Amino acid sequence: MTTAAVTAAAPVADARALGLAHYAARGVLEHVLARHGITFQQQVALRAAVTADAPRTADQLVAQVRGSLKADPVDVRATLDALLAEQLLVADGAHLRPTGAGRELLAAVGAQTAPVTARIWGAIPAEDLAAAGRVLALVAERANAELAALTD
Predict the structure, then answer these.
(1) How far apart are CA 116 and CA 36, in angstroms?
(2) Number of H helices and number of E strands within the chain?
(3) 66-77, pLDDT tens digit by residue?
(4) Claim: this prediction has a pTM higher than 0.70
């Protein structure tokens, strides 16, 4: 089937389509992560530590991961503990810093997923990506507002 045929037959974006796309892409990433003995949540937490502008406290990392994944804070703390035990993070006073091994792990995962990501996202027109980005940002904003209302 050509790209034009796929585009013409594509369903209207909705929660199901979003979920299916998310889980398909996440499945690819989790396959790579499993080769390295790391979970999706561990990768998200490690990436948060690696990409932070400044060292983060455990509480800051918990808040960031919770905000991204809507995960239980107790589970996120357990994730940080596992990263510390695996020496992918190290405690430095009140802060948690990524170790060289943690940075190397993320780099290896990135190198392994880059060609797959290119195949998945490649050849999608820039205007389609921009439109999808705007829609997804709006959906996330609205869903976060609804979740906040439910948990108040």
Answers:
(1) 17
(2) 7, 3
(3) 999 999 999 999
(4) yes
Q: How far is CA 76 from the centre of its chain?
A: 14
> How far apart are alpha carbons 11 and 123 in whole angstroms?
19
From the CA atom positions of the chain, what is the Rg in Å? Answer: 18
Mean per-residue pLDDT, 123-128: 95
User: In sequence order, what DSSP letters do the residues of 20-64 get, joined into one string?
Assistant: HHHHHHHHHHHHHHHHTT--HHHHHHHHHHHH-SS-EEHHHHHHH
Q: Please measure the distance between the N-terminal and C-terminal CA atoms of the chain and give it in whole angstroms.
A: 48
The 10s digit of each residue's pLDDT in 78-97 is: 999 999 999 999 999 999 99
The amino acid that residue 77 corresponds to is R
Q: What is the dihedral of CA 103, 45, 42, 151, to 10 degrees?
A: -170
- Using alpha carbons, select from 102, 115, 103 the residue that is nearest to residue 28: 115
